[in-house]
Amino acid sequence: MREDEVLSTDGTRIRTWSTESAGPPVLLCPGLGTVPESWPGLLLPDCGVRVHSWYHRGTMGSARPADPARVALDDHVADALAVLDATGVERCVVLGWSVGVMVGAELALRHPDRVTGLMLAAGTPGDFYAGVGGPFGLPTGLRRELARGGTQALRLAGPLLDLVTHRFPVNGLTMTLLRHSGFMLPGSTSEAVVAMMRRFRAHDWRWYFTLAAALAAEPAQDLSGLRCPVTLLSGRYDVLADAATSASALAALPQARMRVLPTTHFLPLEAPEVVREELSLLLDRVATVRRWHPLTPDSRQRT
Fold this sequence. Notes:
Blueprint: E1 2-7, E2 13-18, E3 25-29, E4 50-54, H1 73-87, E5 92-97, H2 100-110, E6 115-121, H3 140-156, H4 158-165, H5 172-179, H6 190-200, H7 205-216, E7 230-235, H8 243-249, E8 256-261, H9 267-270, H10 272-292
Parallel strand pairs: 3-4, 3-5, 5-6, 6-7, 7-8
Antiparallel strand pairs: 1-2, 2-4
């Protein structure tokens, strides 16, 4: 894996990362503040794809924008395009996780010539708060307000969270406890979780939840115009992205494939083999579409 830097359209310096595996390119729209170690199945030399991704604004070496308000969905889509342009990728399959689902979906809607297929993992296309707490069975409106208030409270508590998490021991024992907490399940390995959490815990949490609040404020996206192959992977025990809420956004897409897994929000860590399997199937579907419709690579229906 190698890292580099690109400039987004507003001049913000974005830190990128790419794998060097052989295979077709895939753009990964990451979960908020997440790191490559969150995707153990895609870091293997024989994973079959070459992954390109980036770190969100103000995290993991990417600069904060000069205008602190430039952290809306538009800005993250611009960062995604900057990664594609810098790596010389004209079009490819796009994979999104968590809030990256919003970014990937918006990229396909606005720039259909760049997206040949879409995999959405453990996330909702817009209206993020509506998907929080689904397994608890509370009304959507109540869940939305609780999630919004919780995000603001965590943003205000950022300095306290910094004091705790930056000193929290990350080792096999503590990560085993995390993997059995219910927020995460033991389908992930201790080694993978340790590798991820050693970097993830170092965030500036006030900035992290500033990013979260900006993206979560985006309304639900209308995906009915997409025509590229779409795959949705949801976790049955995901408390941040309810499977039913995610599925409803894809109900109008006859070409969409959905799979619900016995995982939490950390689906890439808990089911890396399934991610690779479904990504391979999606690439096959994309190849079939291109074979039968060689002149129509767009991801959105023409009007």
